[in-house]
Specification:
With 87 residues, the protein is an alpha+beta fold. The chain has one domain. The protein is built from three helices and two strands, in the order ββααα. The chain has helices at residues 27-37, 44-57, 63-77, and strands at residues 5-13, 21-26. Strands 1-2 form a two-stranded antiparallel sheet. A hairpin with a 7-residue loop joins strand 1 and strand 2 (21-26). The radius of gyration is 12 Å and the shape is globular. The termini are far apart. This is DUF982 domain-containing protein. It comes from Mesorhizobium plurifarium.
Length: 87
Protein backbone atom coordinates (compact mmCIF):
# COMPACT_ATOMS: atom_id res chain seq x y z
CA UNK A 1 0.00 0.00 0.00
CA UNK A 2 1.32 3.42 -0.94
CA UNK A 3 -0.47 5.93 1.29
CA UNK A 4 0.46 9.48 0.38
CA UNK A 5 -0.46 12.93 1.64
CA UNK A 6 -2.62 15.36 -0.29
CA UNK A 7 -0.85 18.60 -1.17
CA UNK A 8 -3.78 20.50 0.36
CA UNK A 9 -6.14 18.92 2.90
CA UNK A 10 -9.87 18.91 2.22
CA UNK A 11 -12.78 18.55 4.61
CA UNK A 12 -16.18 16.93 4.57
CA UNK A 13 -19.04 16.79 7.01
CA UNK A 14 -20.54 13.63 8.42
CA UNK A 15 -24.20 13.87 7.55
CA UNK A 16 -25.51 11.76 10.41
CA UNK A 17 -24.76 14.32 13.09
CA UNK A 18 -23.92 17.29 10.91
CA UNK A 19 -21.30 18.29 13.47
CA UNK A 20 -18.44 15.90 12.76
CA UNK A 21 -16.02 17.27 10.20
CA UNK A 22 -13.27 15.10 8.76
CA UNK A 23 -10.13 16.93 7.68
CA UNK A 24 -8.73 14.66 5.02
CA UNK A 25 -5.03 14.90 4.23
CA UNK A 26 -4.07 11.37 3.12
CA UNK A 27 -5.23 9.05 0.37
CA UNK A 28 -5.86 6.14 2.76
CA UNK A 29 -8.02 8.39 4.94
CA UNK A 30 -10.06 9.49 1.92
CA UNK A 31 -10.47 5.85 0.85
CA UNK A 32 -11.60 4.89 4.36
CA UNK A 33 -14.22 7.63 4.39
CA UNK A 34 -15.42 6.72 0.89
CA UNK A 35 -15.62 3.00 1.68
CA UNK A 36 -16.65 2.92 5.34
CA UNK A 37 -17.90 6.29 6.58
CA UNK A 38 -19.73 7.80 3.61
CA UNK A 39 -23.14 8.72 4.96
CA UNK A 40 -24.47 10.37 1.82
CA UNK A 41 -26.03 8.51 -1.08
CA UNK A 42 -23.24 7.34 -3.38
CA UNK A 43 -23.24 8.88 -6.82
CA UNK A 44 -21.11 8.63 -9.95
CA UNK A 45 -18.42 10.87 -8.49
CA UNK A 46 -18.32 8.76 -5.31
CA UNK A 47 -17.56 5.68 -7.40
CA UNK A 48 -14.89 7.55 -9.37
CA UNK A 49 -13.29 8.81 -6.14
CA UNK A 50 -13.16 5.31 -4.66
CA UNK A 51 -11.43 4.03 -7.78
CA UNK A 52 -8.99 6.95 -7.85
CA UNK A 53 -8.00 6.50 -4.19
CA UNK A 54 -7.64 2.73 -4.48
CA UNK A 55 -5.49 3.17 -7.60
CA UNK A 56 -3.09 5.44 -5.69
CA UNK A 57 -2.91 2.96 -2.82
CA UNK A 58 -1.97 0.28 -5.35
CA UNK A 59 0.70 2.53 -6.87
CA UNK A 60 -1.28 3.05 -10.09
CA UNK A 61 -2.59 6.59 -9.84
CA UNK A 62 -1.72 10.20 -9.07
CA UNK A 63 -2.43 11.71 -5.65
CA UNK A 64 -3.72 14.97 -7.17
CA UNK A 65 -6.33 13.03 -9.17
CA UNK A 66 -7.47 11.18 -6.05
CA UNK A 67 -7.85 14.43 -4.10
CA UNK A 68 -9.74 16.09 -6.94
CA UNK A 69 -12.06 13.09 -7.22
CA UNK A 70 -12.65 13.06 -3.44
CA UNK A 71 -13.50 16.77 -3.38
CA UNK A 72 -15.86 16.37 -6.35
CA UNK A 73 -17.60 13.43 -4.67
CA UNK A 74 -18.04 15.36 -1.43
CA UNK A 75 -19.38 18.36 -3.35
CA UNK A 76 -21.79 16.12 -5.30
CA UNK A 77 -23.05 14.68 -2.00
CA UNK A 78 -23.39 18.11 -0.39
CA UNK A 79 -20.96 17.31 2.42
CA UNK A 80 -17.90 19.29 1.31
CA UNK A 81 -16.77 21.86 3.85
CA UNK A 82 -15.11 24.86 2.28
CA UNK A 83 -12.96 26.81 4.70
CA UNK A 84 -12.91 30.58 4.55
CA UNK A 85 -9.23 31.48 4.04
CA UNK A 86 -9.82 34.81 5.82
CA UNK A 87 -11.74 33.48 8.78
Amino acid sequence: MQDQRFETPSACRARQSGHTIYTVDRVAQAADILLNRWLASPGKKHTAARKACLNVLQGLGAVRHARKAFVEAAAEAGILVEHDPFG
